[in-house]
Specification:
- By secondary structure, this protein is α/β, with parallel strands linked by helices.
- It is built from ten helices and 15 strands.
- Strands 7, 8, 9, 10, 11, 12, 13, 14 and 15 form a nine-stranded parallel β-sheet that branches.
- It folds into two domains: 70-128, no CATH class; 175-405, Alpha-Beta Barrel (TIM Barrel), CATH 3.20.20.370.
- 36% of the residues are buried.
- The termini are far apart.
- β8 (216-220), α5 (226-235) and β9 (240-246) form a beta-alpha-beta unit.
């Protein structure tokens, strides 16, 4: 290439200089001393080198993903970020260590990727690779919406009656895994539980199509097609309870149904009847009583039931219809998350009366901070609850799953 061609011009130096002492060449272009050209080239090369070693966003992201690498075997599980509203855990750094349960035998690491996804990496601790890989959701409350209809495998155990809820190896409980998340605010909170689902196919379908997702649904253990209805309820966002029949004071004149727990039957038979009921569905946070004034007023009969629930990590909702119940004291002693309902809203199945009772539940929630109302899946009740609940939310009442009102702290 001939000197003086267009490609030989230094960048930005082809402007004409004017005025005295411009030192222009005959062609109008500035003359550059060879030493000045060499110094300029050296500066450009050094600057380019520094930029090449400057960490970029892409390199930072790659480094973050590389930092989660652990010895095989390992499993990575993608989860929605906290900003999506699914988890209330705050992740302060790009890579964060999760709490490691003492008996899990696993290492946990959570990484926030560039697209806002949280990747949890779980790998075995150093124990000669002779143990199982333990997967856990950590402290996450509730299931991801797309898989809420599926049970968590490690929270089930096989029995002669079917699959029963159980704590996982690292202590995770169904009451936490299947709970409906809530805002965590200090405002008035109200749980509304609609029971008797599964007994009527048309009534159950109507309730599932009509009730807002914030309403807790309770399925009767003696109902039909329960697992199918359970899956639809969970897909729709509902928290679920199981209704278990207990002996009333006028039993057997007033009979709650098959496999009723009866004081005279003794501990072994009552636990068998309880397990028969509990194996009917999965994905529930706890059980609530259907009737049971006689049984739940007897400490000797109630305690073995509560101890079994504590072992399995589920809550107990007392419907509050018996003044003689001992469930609260025993549940507290043995470590069962426990709540009691404040009122039944449809003792009179008339729309006006139901709305009055719901207003009363709202007043309790505003005064005490929380309240629990129960109802049955009558069409009139379902319609009244659905319309009232949507209006109450506009008034600042937060309708929550019943598990949000239970003390889920564990005994030391």
């Amino acid at each position: 290439m001939e000197p003086g061609s267009e490609l030989d011009k230094p960048l930005g130096q082809n402007r004409r200089r004017t005025g005295p002492g411009a030192g222009s060449s005959p062609s109008g272009r500035s003359k550059w001393h060879p030493r000045l050209l060499a110094i300029t080239s050296l500066v450009i090369i050094v600057a380019a080198g520094l930029l090449a070693f400057q960490p970029s966003g892409l390199r930072n992201q790659s480094a973050a993903l590389t930092s989660q690498t652990v010895s095989a075997p390992q499993v990575a599980v993608s989860e929605p970020s906290a900003a999506a509203g699914v988890s209330n855990e705050t992740i302060p750094d790009t890579v964060a260590e999760m709490r490691q349960p003492a008996n899990s035998g696993a290492n946990f690491q959570r990484t926030l990727t560039g697209d806002g996804q949280v990747v949890t990496t779980i790998s075995p601790r150093d124990r000669d690779n002779d143990g199982p890989l333990v997967l856990s959701g950590g402290d996450t409350i509730g299931q991801e919406a797309r898989i809420a209809h599926l049970p968590v495998p490690e929270l089930l155990e096989n029995s002669e009656f079917g699959r029963l809820p159980v704590r996982s190896a690292d202590g995770k409980r169904p009451v936490d895994a299947y709970a409906r998340p809530w805002s965590g605010s200090r405002g008035a909170r109200l749980a509304i539980v609609v029971g008797g689902l599964g007994l009527s196919q048309t009534g159950t379908q109507y309730a599932l199509q009509t009730l807002p997702e914030e309403i807790t649904l309770a399925f009767a253990a003696s109902g039909n097609s329960l697992q199918r209805w359970l899956q639809e309820a969970r897909r729709n966002g509902h928290e679920v309870l199981l209704q278990v029949p207990f002996e009333p004071f006028d039993f057997p004149t007033n009979n709650p149904g098959p496999h009723t727990l009866v004081v005279a039957d003794g501990e072994k038979q009552n636990l068998a009847d309880l397990h028969w009921a509990m194996a009917r569905i999965t994905n529930y946070t706890g059980i609530m009583n259907f009737m049971g004034g006689r049984f739940l007023s007897d400490p000797a009969a109630t305690e073995p039931i509560m101890r079994d629930l504590a072992k399995r990590g589920v809550l107990f909702l007392d419907d509050g219809t018996s003044a003689q119940t001992v469930t609260g004291a025993i549940a507290s002693a043995v470590g069962v998350p426990h709540v009691s309902a404040d009122l039944v809203v449809d003792a009179s199945v008339k729309r006006g009366e139901i709305l009055k009772k719901l207003d009363e539940a709202e007043r309790i929630a505003r005064l005490e901070g929380t309240a629990i109302a129960t109802a049955s899946a009558f069409e009139t009740s379902v319609d009244a609850i659905a319309s009232w609940a949507n209006e109450a939310k506009a008034r600042g009442i937060e309708i929550v799953g019943v598990s949000a009102l239970a003390d889920r702290r564990e005994n030391n």
